[in-house]
UniProtKB/TrEMBL annotation:
Gene3D superfamilies: Alpha-ketoglutarate-dependent dioxygenase AlkB-like (2.60.120.590). One of its GO terms (molecular function) is 2-oxoglutarate-dependent dioxygenase activity. One of its GO terms (biological process) is fatty acid metabolic process. PANTHER family: ALPHA-KETOGLUTARATE-DEPENDENT DIOXYGENASE ALKB HOMOLOG 7, MITOCHONDRIAL, SPERMATOGENESIS ASSOCIATED 11-RELATED. Pfam families: 2OG-FeII_Oxy_2. This is Fe2OG dioxygenase domain-containing protein.
């Protein structure tokens, strides 16, 4: 591990669940969902503005630092010569990203599901004390997310999509994680398409603004594919691409569950 990326051990394994928060894991703002069929609302939840602008900037910075530390010296040097100057209270988080050529994006996931991205698992987050305040800390943000996550333990993953990056339709690997998938969206507003595996229940499009958090579980997690579109049209309005980083939290697979879902072969 590079000296510059001294890490704080922040164990993510002991989040406490809370039944009051569990109850709130349903529902979504109708203006952010465009349904073409049923929306299994009990198994999908979206919260707009879950994180404030300042919290978004802090979490994004931590995630970018984590990914950046993994890159070659060439890219790190390249970024050093072009510092981003982002105002944390600004409405627009996009200025917190470098432009695409400053990152070493992978062109395609090994199974072809993700295009133009960087990703990694996170067990320890980098220090961001230089941008933390008394009120807003990375620990505080992670606690807020973990308190919202219905079960523990949790595995965390960060995924940075280039402006033209996209995620093709897939069901998350059913042998890699459990029932819940939580996604925090940071950066460009992208469209997520959620479509029934057997097409019997249609599909729904979800607009994912920066700072929003979604949770898919049970029927949506296993019976629907999800995709993050490069661009698209939402309720008649064009949604362009743009850089986006998501922080994904998933529960560990419970080996006690009798797996009758193997027919839903995961694509990812
Ligand atoms: O970025 C997102 O919101 C979704 C990511 C995703 O589908 C995945 O990592 O499997
Ligand atoms: Fe996924």
């Amino acid at each position: 591990m590079l000296a510059r990326t001294r890490t704080l051990a922040r164990t993510l394994l002991h989040a406490r669940s809370c039944c009051i928060q569990k109850k709130s894991l349903t529902g979504y703002p109708p203006h952010l969902v465009d349904a073409h069929g049923d929306v299994p609302a009990g198994d999908f939840c979206l919260i707009e503005n879950f994180l404030s602008k300042e919290e978004q900037f802090l979490l994004l910075t931590a995630a970018l630092r984590k990914l950046d530390a993994n890159e070659t010296v060439t890219y790190r040097k390249r970024r050093k010569t072009a510092q981003v100057t982002h105002d944390p209270s600004s409405e627009n988080l996009l200025s917190a990203f470098h432009s695409d050529e400053f990152y070493r994006f992978e062109n395609g996931h090994y199974d072809g599901v993700i295009r133009h991205y960087r990703e990694m698992h996170v067990t320890a987050w980098p220090l961001v004390t230089d941008i933390e305040s008394q009120d807003i800390t990375l620990d505080g943000i992670l606690r807020k997310l973990l308190n919202f996550f219905p079960v523990d333990p949790v595995q965390t993953h960060i995924l940075h999509l280039a402006s033209e990056g996209e995620i093709l339709p897939h069901v998350d690997n059913t042998s890699a994680s459990g029932t819940y998938i939580l996604g925090v969206s940071l950066g460009a507003t992208r469209m997520m398409r959620v479509e029934s595996v057997d097409s019997g229940h249609g599909s729904f499009d979800v607009l994912l603004p920066s700072g929003s958090v979604y949770v898919q579980k049970d029927l949506v997690r296993y019976g629907y594919r999800h995709a993050i579109l490069k661009n698209g049209t939402f309720k008649g309005i064009p949604v362009a691409g743009g850089p986006r980083l998501s922080v994904m939290m998933r529960d560990m697979l419970s080996t006690n569950i009798t797996d009758n879902r193997s027919s839903l072969r995961p694509d990812r």
